[in-house]
Please model this.
Amino acid sequence: STVGKAIRCKGSLSHTAAVCRSSGEPLVIEEIEVAPPKAGEVRIKIICTSLCHSDVTFWKLKEPHGIFPRIFGHEAVGVVESVGENVKEVKEGDMVVPVFLANCEECRDCKSKKSNICSKFPFGVVPGLPRDGTSRFRDSKGEVLHCFLSVSSFAEYTVVDITHVAKLDDRRISAEKACLLSCGVSTGVGAAWKVADVEAGSTVVIFGLGAVGLAVAEGARIRGASKIIGVDLNPQKFEIGKKFGVTDFVNPKDCLDRPITEVISEMTDGGADYCFECIGLASLMNDAFNCCRSGWGKTVILGVEMHGSPLSINCLEILRGKCITGALFGGTKAKTDIPLFAKMYLDKELHLDDFITHEVSFHDINKAFDLLIQEKSIRCIIWM
Ligand code: CXF
Ligand code: ZN
Model:
């Protein structure tokens, strides 16, 4: 009988993963079983992964919203170990970047340059499972381990749908730089280039200088923005921001005597051309909108407001031509844009090195959590 024993289906791999057993608890390195990829899936040997704020957000969620036991992680790079039926796009040994957002390249959205939200494999944080709705992970007792954002990269091996994989043909990019392109950096750079389409000479305000906000700055710097204002409560973020093109800094703590909109309006001669919200707070989204120039100012929402709170916007400002939009993954299409970003890095246009502030080995993965939560790291690379 298999009762109480790990079920090893043919082709299963026995390896380790950092399992989250319950909300907010340190991850535990455990032996797990990773089933072979089904049709349309790829089994990936993770080279390195990093921690994004979304991992922390969902790790903190209490049941029933939080789902456990679970394997987190969604920013990573790896090598294809094996492919399921009907997978022609990649083969064993290819370098790939898994992505939380699908890109089937066949649906109306994937075919349109106006959207990056695949409608054939719709994005949802729940369940974030492969297309048949079942997990490929089991623990040593044979119990199912849940997936996260279709990626679950805190494991030596993971299984990801081919629609969630970008292939990197040019192997000159190092693993840790490729890893950054899997979520945060592509989100920020994409937002500046594809969503806002920042032009030379423009003024930009970025609310929140985490990896996403800094990547917006980097994207705006490359486009030749003349002023890039960072807004953050942590005064150390100005020095860090300068490396990514931030030219000016506003700490809301220092302008309690007058509204931030007034401060920004003065610095930008009547309001910024582009504002980006990279935190996920409705009140900051309002601030961002109010800091934009009447007439043409554009606000881009990147932060995830977990409660779906409504925004209240002055209707007359909309009449005057201001606009507000948002994007998942910065409007980036995984399969085509990630290789482009990698090329821009290799051409020395896009700077990636400074995003990596820390590196740890997989066994020390909980240190990566501490560093991000304490705002000591921008990106901590976790080596398998
Ligand atoms: C986020 C985007 C919105 C929902 C959760 C995940 N992406 C990556 O960090
Ligand atoms: Zn992320």
